[in-house]
Amino acid sequence: MTDVEAVNETDLDAYVDNQLDTPARLRVENHLARHPDVAARVMADLGMRTTLKLALQTEQTNSSPATREAARRLTASLEGRRMWTSLQRIAAIAVLISIGWFANSSIGPFGPSEVNASTHPPAFVEQALRAHQTSLVREAMPSQPEVKTYDREEIRAATAILMPKLPKDWQVVDVQIFPSDFGPSVEATIEKDGMRLSLFAVRPGHFGVEPVKDLKMSNAEAAWWQIGEIAYALVSSNPEAGLSDEAELLKNSLH
Fold first, then answer.
1. What angle do CA 82, 126, 3 make, to 5 degrees?
2. Which of 143, 173, 190, 253 has the most CB atoms lying inside 10 A of its own CB?
3. pLDDT tens figures, 191-247
């Protein structure tokens, strides 16, 4: 096995997160010893992780709220950067597939063949994609009852998340609450013109105002935006769904 085959970006991320067993860590460390540039980047990530861990241990530190908030933002930034690296790597594989290099292989349900976004998508977009995938799993399980009540006031009271108003011809199929780093998130499964969508809302841990942006992948599309402390994403398993207009409609309902 060559060095390139033995250690990839996923291995490096797992090394930083202390998720490897001893033989795997040794393999990564041997790789780093032969690649000083990669080692420098990994050490920088390790240093950031250690700094964030210390800053977020509020019970044992006297850091100010501003310092803790900055640490949380750095955490979200690091996770978002890693997600973007993964998307780029999978996109490269998709290009190889298109020219026949991997004619008999598969890259998974949400491997992007093209990323249509002017900026790196934030980490909550990946959470929205996972929530959408989970909703598809639940759909195929008769033992999992669906909750069709979309009560915006109840959701807001329980989660501090204001959900968009839905057009009258959109049918709510299921509503679920998921955990996230900064409190609960909400995923509503919706039927629209025979197409199943997921509307996802979460507190990303920082304040921002972002217009609707679109992210297209090989087997999915996500349109996302942020208003204040709440971020939203509309997801479909159809990469040609064209969700920007629907996302704008939902966004405008929040004003």
1. 35
2. 190
3. 998 899 999 999 998 899 999 999 988 888 999 999 999 999 999 999 888 899 999
Non-local CB neighbours of 140 within 8 Å, separated by 6+ positions? none
CA distance 222 to 241: 9
The domain of 36 spans 3-63
* 241 falls within a domain: yes
Interatomic CA distance for residues 66 and 160, integer angstroms: 21
pLDDT of amino acid 122? 87
Q: Global pTM?
A: 0.56
In this structure, are 176 and 101 located in the same domain?
Answer: yes
Domain membership of residue 76 (yes or no) is no
